[in-house]
């Protein structure tokens, strides 16, 4: 079972604004907040997302084939999360829409290039 997902960043302040906005739409806030690490979610709740400066001091880079999927309440929230992402420095990787039977998603990258989606099943 996944407890949380951590993504790297080279600009924690910029990334925090991006994830603060998405977390607010999803009804959660910061559950951990340190100088080089912030995590969003609810302690004891569903898995959270964290953003960190790499511990080894090297530049953060994007993993090829790596993606974090954020479960939305409905198609309207998929659209809102996607719009919030783009309004906060994200870039489009595929506008919200059906992606096969029973799966609806919008794909985007955060300001550091990490790939995410917002999705709903059914």
From TrEMBL:
InterPro entries: Glyas_Bleomycin-R_OHBP_Dase, Glyas_Fos-R_dOase_dom, VOC_core
Name the record gives this protein: VOC family protein
Residue ranges occupied by any VOC domain in the UniProt entry: 1-121
SUPFAM superfamilies in alphabetical order: Glyoxalase/Bleomycin resistance protein/Dihydroxybiphenyl dioxygenase
Source organism superkingdom: Bacteria
Pfam families: Glyoxalase
PANTHER family membership: GLYOXALASE FAMILY PROTEIN (AFU_ORTHOLOGUE AFUA_5G14830)
């Amino acid at each position: 079972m996944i407890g949380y997902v951590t993504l790297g960043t080279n600009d924690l302040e910029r990334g925090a604004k991006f994830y603060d906005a998405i977390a607010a739409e999803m009804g959660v806030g910061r559950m951990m907040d340190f100088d080089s690490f912030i995590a969003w979610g609810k302690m004891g709740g569903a898995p959270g997302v964290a953003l960190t400066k790499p511990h080894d001091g090297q530049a953060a880079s994007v993993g090829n084939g790596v993606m974090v999927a954020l479960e939305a309440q409905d198609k309207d929230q998929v659209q809102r999360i996607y719009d919030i992402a783009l309004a906060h420095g994200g870039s489009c990787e595929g506008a919200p829409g059906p992606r096969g039977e029973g799966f609806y998603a919008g794909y985007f990258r955060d300001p550091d290039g990490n790939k995410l989606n917002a999705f709903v099943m059914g």
